[in-house]
Amino acid sequence: MQLGTRWAVGEQAPANLPEVVGYAVSTVEEELVATDVDTAGWSWTLTWLEGKPVVELDDGTVIRYNPAEDSATITQTVETDAGDFGEV
Question: In whole angstroms, what is the distance from residue 20 CA to residue 65 CA?
Fold first, then answer.
């Protein structure tokens, strides 16, 4: 059994994450900095699902690891304005 953990945005990710997941975390953080998002107080949460890491940011961004391809998939929430779709 593996226990999860939390760490603040900008801090070092846990060493037991696959390298590609660590890169994905860095990529998300770099994008947040580039778009001037205030991440004060934000944290990442690492959980293990069937032995694979799942990392979630407080804004809903999720990073999942695919060991067969040694890849990480980043899924980000998209905020939409109701006005974008016209009258309902």
Answer: 8
C-beta separation of 64 from 73 below 8 A: yes
Q: Which domain holds residue 52?
A: 5-82
- Residue 45 makes CB contacts below 8 A (sequence gap 6+) with 4, 5, 6, 55, 56, 57, 58
CA distance 75 to 27: 12
- Other Cβ atoms within 10 Å of 20 Cβ, number: 15
Task: Report CA torsion sign: 38, 40, 41, 42.
Answer: positive
3 state SS of 83: helix
Q: pLDDT digit string (tens) for 38-52? A: 999 999 999 999 999
What's the whole-model pTM score? 0.86
> Is there a domain that residue 50 lies in?
yes
